[in-house]
Amino acid sequence: MTANETTAGETGAATAAGAAAGGRAGTSVSLRGLTRAFGATRALDEMSLDIASGELVALLGPSGCGKTTALRIVAGFEYADAGQVLIDGKDITGVPASRRDMGMVFQSYSLFPNMNALDNVAFGLRMRKVGGGARRRRAGELLEMVGLSAQAGQFPHQLSGGQQQRVALARALAVEPRVLLLDEPLSALDAKVRQQLREQIRTLQQRLGTTTLFVTHDQEEALSMSDRVGVMRAGRLEQVAEPAVLYSRPATAFVAEFVGTMNRLPGELGGGGAAVTVLGVTVPVQDGGPASGPVDALVRPEDLTVTAAEDGNGIVAGRTFLGAVSRVEVLLSGELAVSVDVASAAALAMAPGTAVQVSLPGTPVLVAARTD
Amino acid sequence: MAALTRAPRDPHRAARAGSPRGRSLPGWRWAVLLVAAVYFLVPLAGALRFAGFSAFGGVIDQPGFTAALWLSVRLAVVTTAITLLLMVPTTIYVHLRLPRLRRVLDSVTILPIVIPPVVLIIGVLRVSKAAPALQSSPYLLALEYVVLAMPFAYRSIDAGLRALDLKTLTEAAGSLGAGWTATLLRVILPNLTTALLSATVLTVALVLGEYTMATLDLFTTFPVWIVTNDQVSAQGSVAASLLALFVTWLVLLLITLAGSRYSRRRGGGEVTLFTAAAPQTIGN
Questions:
Q1: Which of A244, B13, B180, B221 has the most CB atoms within 10 Å of its CB?
Q2: In chain A, what residues touch B163 (CB-CB under 8 Å)?
Q3: If you average pLDDT over every residue of chain B, what do you get?
Q4: Which residues of B are less than 8 Å from A103 in CB distance?
């Protein structure tokens, strides 16, 4: 429980816990120093994470970063070489998956092909010896909740991919799991269905207040659905933070570049690593970068400004209309290309070939060791 | 292996798509069909002519007929039961836990086809010395047939399992609170019905037709009886074999039809002698 409180205190996850009202009494999850090696590769390297009750935390990272291994260890399908999983402060490391009381939605279609949608949803209740009538009633309610009452009698092969994942979600939620585990449940679906399901999952999760761990490699998905996002790299959590914080104040260069678009601009460190000179301007350095050596400043496209200027430092190489804003590609001296977001109206004046001046904001920037 | 040919045919779809051209067979197909029909049916017709219709009535009254047929049926049941009990859990376990052993199993299970039956018999006899009661029992044959049926049974079950996402289904069942027994009985086996039927059909057909081992072990199974009886009444013997052929066909046809109907309802493939479950296709 102390872990739970620390988490809430540190990250402001209390708001999420508040949403738990109405759901099953919230369950907190704690991963403590999870380590798992497959041969020579360390899939997880002393990973620790606290999830408050009712909170939805996404694990985001490139493939092979260990996020799925972490989820599978929580589910009980994989074991950790070292470390513990605590549910409401109780160590469940030795408890088999079937007694962990967790609901899981898989990346691949996992409905039982021999059962119709209703029987699929009722399966967990059947395993819990819930009587036939109550079972069917509850399964029916859940199918209604995911909007598939009409498909109750259909078999999985008669359902679309999106429908199958909704039935899978209903099936996982039917048993009122203590924790909901989502293993890239949307990655096999097309963009439009993915968008709808994303919202549906989040709405349901908040309504039921089910503590949820969500694994994805899609940053948009992680940022739009989660209370907090943990960015993973090589078996470790680089940063766990609310989506807005992750985006605006990334703790490391990896997080900065993995989440959103990031420009790398060569800079000169000065003032003992406290300031960096980029494009002729000296700006303060945000914590977390190297103190010496060749560095790049990391700046988001929307933080840079660009104006048409005859004697500017770059030339427009191209522009992409994105709606309200346009992304302008500018070629600076030394073959350095940067992306700058500009209001689409202003971008009209920046046809390819236009001489422009790109400048930096005065706010602190993140620096990273230069990679060539 | 021909036994792995898949038949994901949907008769309804085929009928809908059936243009006039698709519905009537083109000429060359008729020719092929005709040649095949002549090749297979002429000997049957010849046998039928030789035996004469009257011989059929007498077959059942021939000495030893009932005993031999009954023995073969019992052997078919026992062999199928042992084969499935051995092969189903083994194959599932290998698929789930030891996927790297699949190659080994692939080649091990082909051995009974490669090794001459005589060698197998001597092997089984040697082993069965440990149980003298078994040595004189006709069920010794069942053990030999289990070895013979293994390649076919394994391939059917293996193909059925390949068509399933076994790992995900097992984990899904586990996360919903199902233990091993429930997962096996409620999730895995119901999705393997096509494959199990296919394995059963092949095993039954094999047992009902096996001659070499039975005769070497001196047991009068139905095929052995037909050959022995040939010396007493050639016509009766031919009539008996024709009868056996038709009965076997009928049994296999019934199993196949029942299996296809069951599996079609669930989106699986057709059951034919040489197919197992066809993979499910998923629309988006």
A1: B221
A2: none
A3: 79
A4: 175-176
Number of H helices, E strands in chain A: 11, 20
The verdict on a CB contact (< 8 Å) between A75 and B190 is no
Per the rule left: phi > 0, alpha: psi between -120 and 50, beta: everything else, B71 is alpha
> Which token pair is B274?
């040489």
Instruction: Report yes or no: A296 and A370 within 8 Å, Cβ to Cβ.
Output: yes
**Average model confidence (pLDDT) across chain A:** 86
Q: How far apart are CA A312 and CA A317, in angstroms?
A: 14
Q: Using the beta-carbon criterion (under 8 Å), do B175 and A158 form an inter-chain contact?
A: no
DSSP 8-class letter at A107 = S
Domains of chain B with bracketed CATH = 56-265 (1.10.3720.10)
């409180």: which residue's tokens? A5
Q: Which of A101, A112, A173, A193 best probes binding to B when mutated, by most B CB atoms within 10 angstroms? A: A112
Q: What is the full DSSP assignment across A62-97?
A: STTSSHHHHHHHHHTSS--SEEEEEETTEE-TTS-G
pLDDT in tens, A220-232: 899 999 999 999 9
Scanning A25-84 for CB atoms below 8 A from B yields 75-77
Q: What is the pLDDT of residues A320-361, one digit of tens each?
A: 998 899 999 999 887 889 999 999 998 888 989 999 999 888
- Rounded (5°) CA angle A211-A215-A220: 105
The answer to whether A180 contacts chain B (CB < 8 Å) is: no
Distance to chain A for B19, nearest Cα, Å:
25
Domains and CATH numbers, chain A: 2-101+177-253 (3.40.50.300), 263-369 (2.40.50.100)
Residue in chain B nearest A121 by alpha carbon: B176
- Tell me: pLDDT of B14 over 50: no
| pLDDT reading at A205 higher than 80 | yes
Tell me how far apart the alpha carbons of residues A78 and A34 are, in angstroms, rounded to a whole number.
11
CA distance B153 to B202: 7
SS3 of A338, please?
strand
Handedness of CA A10, A16, A21, A22 (dihedral sign): negative
Tokens of A6: 């620390």
For residue A180, what is the nearest residue in chain B, using CA coordinates? B175
Q: Is there a contact between B196 and B189 (Cβ–Cβ < 8 Å)?
A: yes
- Show the CA angle centred on residue A298, arms to residues A293 and A303, nearest 5°: 145
The tally of CA atoms less than 13 A away on the side-chain side of residue B257 is 6
Do A57 and A71 touch, CB atoms closer than 8 A? no
Residues composing chain B:
284
- Say how far apart CA A331 and CA A318 lie, in whole Å: 9
Q: Which of A110, A128, A158 has its CB closest to that of B172?
A: A110
Asked if residue A232 lies in contact with residue A220, where contact means CB atoms within 8 angstroms, the answer is no
Tokens of B74: 């019992």
DSSP string, A26-49: ---EEEEEEEEEETTEEEEEEEEE
Between chains, do A110 and B268 touch, taking CB under 8 Å as contact? no
CA angle A304, A305, A311 (to 5 degrees): 120
Q: Which residue of A has its CA nearest to B283?
A: A160
Residue that the structure tokens 């403590």 belong to: A32
Kindly state the tokens that stand for A166: 């909704």
